[in-house]
Amino acid sequence: MNQKLKVALKFVIEGKEYETYDQYKTGAELKQLGGIPLATELYLSISKPYKDELIENDKEVDLARPETEYFFVKKKLYFTINKAAFTWYKQYIRGVQIRELGKIDADELIYLAIERPFEDELIGDDDKVDLARPGKEHFFSKEQPCDFTIIVNATPKAWKEKTISFEQVVVLAFGVINNRPETGYTVTYSRGVEPKPEGTMVKGSIVKVKNKMIFDVTATDKS
Question: How far is the C-alpha of 185 from the C-alpha of 168, rounded, in Å?
């Protein structure tokens, strides 16, 4: 059981210093502090000629011993996402984990950089990448090409942008937009992007586009 102390105890995990008032910490608690996955092997550094000690998740370590305790992971893998450096503790990483770490938008594509003359490899969210291969893996993201079909007044229309404006919808519906004061337009949409898949557009407004999104446009004469 942990004993609360009056003096903070210092220890180091992966080169970063921590303090605690608990005399004992389990392997799981140490990993949580260091941001290390529970399935990763954590070691306590021991002076030679003795071997470093493997700390299991349920193993309690006495941090009140005379010398500062140093904990480390033997197997670390390094890679980059959009030129930012990351460390991983498992052999494989999934595309969705790369997306989360790199804060990559859902509508962007992720690629693994491959040396020329070969093409870069497209990584899907469910794909697994082996980080233990020779060299450091470099991932990058880029915008997904837009190739939508939207339905305007029951007619399919090709659209190649992520967004569409009120004015652009009107032009798709009628070929031109009449700017006379007595002419008005009503634009509604459905099957759109969450969290607001349906609604009404007004002059100057813009909405995100989704494939098979539906727009209904009517023109009114105020004269």
Answer: 12
pLDDT in tens, 54-108: 999 999 999 998 889 999 988 888 999 999 999 888 888 999 999 999 999 887 8
Give me the CATH number covering residue 103: 3.10.20
- State how far the alpha carbon of 154 is from the alpha carbons of 75, 172, 206, in Å: 58, 12, 20
Name the residue range of residue 165's domain.
148-221
Number of domains in the chain: 3
Secondary structure (DSSP) of 77-130? EEEEETTEEEEESSSEEEHHHHHHHTT--TTEEEEE---TTSPPEEE-TT-EEE
Do residues 188 and 215 lie in contact, with contact meaning Cβ atoms separated by under 8 Å?
yes
